[in-house]
Amino acid sequence: MEITVQKAARADVPDMLTFINGLAAHVGHPEAVTATAETLEASIFDRQEAQVLIARCGGEAAGWALYFYNYSTFLAKRGIFMEDLFVKPAWRGKGVGRELISALAKIALEEGCARLDWNCLDWNTGSVAFYKGMGAEVLAGESVYRLTGDSLRKAADCAGRQAT
Question: Which position among 67, 69, 131, 145 bears the catalytic label?
Answer without folding.
Answer: 131
